[in-house]
Amino acid sequence: MGTLPRIAVTSGEPAGIGPELLAALGQMNLPAQLVLLGDQDVLQARAACVGSAGHWPAYTPDTVAPVSVLHIPAAAPVTAGKLDTRNAQHVLDLLDRAVDGCLAGEFAAIVTAPLHKGVINEGQTSQSGQFFYGHTEYLAERTHTPRVVMMLTCEQMRVALATTHLPLKDVPAAITAQSLTETLRILHADLKHKFGIATPRILVAGLNPHAGESGHLGHEEIDIITPTLDALRAEGMMLIGPLPADTLFNPTQLQRGDAVLAMYHDQGLPVLKFASFGSGINVTLGLPIIRTSVDHGTALDLAGTGKADVGSLVAATQLAIELAHAKSRAVA
Questions:
Q1: By CB atoms within 10 Å of each CB, which of 200, 206, 265, 328 scores lowest?
Q2: To the nearest whole percent, how much of the chain has pLDDT over 90?
């Protein structure tokens, strides 16, 4: 047991499905030591929803157990399905503890259950004047990482994003030669070093319909995307594109690459989430730590019913374990 990677799993928004997903995960026999971060009373209550006794030992750094609980109390009573801004800081406390443990070598990886950005922005972070954009951006700031890349993966494909949580009107200005270069370098490096792909092939989507159609439907492909790809090809990267997004996501095209770089959130993720059927995984590339996550939200309407599908959390945990083993082998 001591040789298995220790994986921190945060429960996210306590009123959402996260706690019961963790309780369901805690019943599974996975090749890791799982540390469930959350309010132990909430986890205990939700365990009953998924038919679990929820009898896990309290976590300490010396704990050696298949599953243990690191108790971080909620600030206010938790009712399934009902958000409470008083618990906004609790959600961030879970992340902070997991990140600190990962940076210190206490945890090999972090897996995150969904949080609710709205309640965090209405709660503690709004008092400090800081806007909470999401897990990805928060973890980048918390680890002092200047740029990270959001990638979702499933059995059929990997899709990374050139921009993440931006209004659509702001996307074109955010796609610059510098940002695109940095994103592709991070994606290429992590495909190589974290996923073990010796020579990554990356399919790059255009921004505009038909990839700009030779400038008739936009100039970003001509002015920014193509010159950037050419410069990186000269460095040895295998980059295919820019490709029209409406024909990129077909099986024949996808077989040509190891990952897709989409220009914005809703260009690539709806396709992946349709293909994954609830088993997609969110991976944050570029961090000094390993972080995976579910590809869905808090599902407040399902919280407390025991009907939430644990598939994405299981897949995210399994990938975190695989990446932790790969990192361990690389260090050795």
A1: 328
A2: 82
- The reply to whether 209 and 305 lie within a common domain is no
Ligand-binding annotation for 201, yes or no, is: no
Cα–Cα distance measured from residue 75 to residue 46, given in angstroms and rounded to the nearest whole number: 18
- Strand 259-262 and strand 158-161: the pairing is parallel
pLDDT in tens, 233-292: 999 999 999 999 999 999 999 999 999 999 999 999 999 988 887 788 999 999 999 999
In the chain, how many domains are there?
Answer: 2
Q: Which helix (H) or strand (E) holds 304?
A: none
Query: 87 and 176 share a domain?
Result: no
Can you say how many angstroms the Cα of residue 328 is from the centroid of all Cα atoms in its chain?
21
Domain of 55, CATH number, reads 3.40.718.10
The H-or-E segment that residue 91 falls in is helix 88-103
Both 234 and 306 in one domain: the answer is: no
Domain shared by 74 and 177, yes or no: no
265 appears as a binding residue in the annotation: yes
Domain span at residue 181 reads 148-286
Tell me the pairing of strands 259-262 and 201-205: parallel
Indicate the pairing of strand 281-285 with strand 149-153: antiparallel
Is there a single domain that holds both residue 14 and residue 117?
yes
Q: Positive or negative CA dihedral for 117, 119, 125, 127?
A: positive
Partners of 158 in the β-ladder: 153
3-state secondary structure of 182: helix
Say which DSSP state 224 is in.
I
What pTM was estimated for this model as a whole? 0.90
**Would you say 147 is a known binding-site residue?**
no
165 annotated ligand-binding residue: yes
Determine whether the annotation assigns residue 60 to a binding site: no
Q: Is 135 annotated as a binding residue?
A: yes
